[in-house]
Write a structure and sequence with these properties.
The chain is an all-alpha fold. It has three helices and no strands. The two termini are 36 Å apart.
């Protein structure tokens, strides 16, 4: 049983954590693959149009949840 859980844990690391870590690493690089640190994030959050995209994403997530949860609740009742 422990070996099975270990295999599942290894799969989760390879399938989820590794790609997320690689994406985080790429987000800290510039266009020529040089390390720029948090400069990309500072530029992103200082641009009003791009910063507004966070609000749009949250609105879509809330709206999707507000539609899906009642629909799922009525389907199981």
């Amino acid at each position: 049983m422990r070996a099975f859980i270990g295999v599942i844990g290894l799969y989760l690391v390879v399938a989820l954590a590794l790609p997320l870590g690689l994406m985080l690493g790429k987000s800290l690089q510039g266009s020529r693959d040089e390390f720029v640190g948090l400069a990309n994030y500072i530029r992103y959050f200082s641009t009003p149009a791009l910063f507004q995209s966070i609000g749009n994403s949250l609105w879509i997530a809330i709206l999707g949840t507000a539609i899906t949860v009642p629909a799922a609740s009525s389907a199981t009742a």
